[in-house]
Automatic annotation (TrEMBL):
Record-listed E.C. numbers: 2.7.13.3
Organism: Tistrella mobilis
SUPFAM superfamilies registered for this protein in UniProt: ATPase domain of HSP90 chaperone/DNA topoisomerase II/histidine kinase, Homodimeric domain of signal transducing histidine kinase
Name this protein carries in UniProt: histidine kinase
Superkingdom as given in the UniProt entry: Bacteria
Transmembrane segments: 22-43, 190-212
Catalytic activities: ATP + protein L-histidine = ADP + protein N-phospho-L-histidine
Amino acid sequence: MARDAADPAAARKGMSGLGSQIWIAGLAGLMTLMLALQIWAGFGVISSTRAVADGDALMRETDSLLHLLQEAEVAQGRYLRLQTAGALDDYRRTRGSAPVAFGQLAHLAEAEQADSGAGCSVMTAMLEEAFRSMDRVIDLRQARADDEVLMAAEARQMQAVDLARQQIALAQTQIGQRISARLSAADENFTIAAGASLLGFSFAIPSAIVMFRRLRRSREQERHLRLQVEAANLQLESRVAVRTAELLRANRALADANAVKDRFLANMSHELRTPLNAVIGFSDMIATEMLGPVGNPRYTGYARDILASGRHLLALIEDILDLSRIQAGRIDIDPVETSPRQLAAEAMSIVSTMARDAGVEIVLEADQAPDQARLDARRVKQVLINLLTNAIRYGSQGGEIRLGIAPAEAAPHAVRFVVEDGGAGMTEAELARALQPFEQVSADRQRRAGGTGLGLPLTRLLVLAHGGRFDITSRPGVGTRVVVEI
C-alpha cells in the first residue's frame, strides 16, 4: 500500500515537472515568436523607410527635370524673340545639363525600384524628344525657314513638351503612390511590432523597451522625411516663382536696351552721315573744279584724297550700322525683279580701279545666269563688292579672280554666285577667325592688305538675312572659294 501511495505522488511530481517543462518551453517559444515578430516588423519599418527615402530622391529628381525643361523653354523663347548670341548661350548651357540629369535619374530609378527604370526610360525619351524639337526650332529660325515650316516645328515642339510634362506627372503620381504604399506598410509594421511588444511586455520588458525605442526612432524618421518632402516642394515652388520674376525683369531690361540701341543707331546714322556727305560733296566739287579752277593743282589732288577718305569712312560707317541692324534683327530686305548679270557688272565696275592697281583681272562667267531674279539689288551688290574686294586684297598679283553666276541647284528660283581667287588661302583656324566681326586673319596680312574685318562677317549675315546660303572654303597656297545662293 505504501508503494501504491508513493506512486500517485511520484506521478503528480512527474506531471508537475512535465507541466513546468511544457510551460517553460511554451514561454520560450512565445518569447522566441515575439522576438522574431518584433525583429521582422522592425526590419519592415527600416526597409520601408529606406524605400521612402529612395522614392523621395527620385521625386526630387523628376522635379529637377521638370524645372530644367521649363528653363530650356524660357531660354529658347528668349532667343527666338531676341536672336542674340547671349540668349543662345543660355539655352545651350541649360540644354547641355540634360544628359547629366538623365543619368542621375536612371541611377535613382534603379535604386528606387527594379521596374522603375522602364517608366523613367520612357520619360527620358520624351524629354530628349522635347529638347530635340527645341533644337529643331532654333535651327530653323537660324536658317530663316518659311513661316509654315517654322510653325509646324513649333507645334511639334509644343506637343513633345506637353507629352514630356504628362509623362513626368504620371511618373510623379506613380512614385507618390509607391511612397504612400511604403508609408502605409511602415505604419502597419509599426502596429504589428507594437502589439507584439505589448503582448510580450510581461516576459521581456528590456527587449520590449529597446525595440519600442527603435521603432519610435523609425517613426520619427518617417515624419522627418515627410517634412523634408514638404519643405522641398515649398522650396521648389519658391525657386520657380523667384526665377520667373527674374526672367520677367530680364525681359523688360532687354526690351529697354533694344529700344535704346535703336534710338542710338538712328541718331548715329543721321549725325555721322550728314557731315560726311557734306565733306564728300564739297571735296568732289573741289576735285572736279565744278565752280572754276582751284589754282595750284596740288589742291585738287588733296581734294581727291579727302574725297576718297570720306567715301571710305562713309562705307565703313555703313558697314558698322548694317552689322548692328542685322545683329538686332532689324535689317530691311526689299526684293524686286532685277538682272543678276547687271548687278555683277556694276559691282565689278566699282572695284575695277582697285583691281587694276593690284594687278588682278576679274573674269565674269555668266553664260548660265538667269535674265531676271527677285533680289534686293542694293544688298546683293554690297555682297558682291565685299567678296570681290576681299579677293583682290588677298589675291596674288597678276592673278585672276572668277565671278560665276548660275541658277541655284537646290532652289530653282534662287541665284548662285561663286567668287574664286588663287591667293594665299587660309587654314581652318584662320577662316574661323575671318568670319568673326572686326577680326583679322593675322596682323601681318592686315598690314599688307588693310581692311576692317567686317567684309566676310557682314556678307555672311546679309546673305542669311536674305534667306540665302553662304559657304566658304579655303586652302593655304590654293586660294579661297565663296558660294552664295540667294
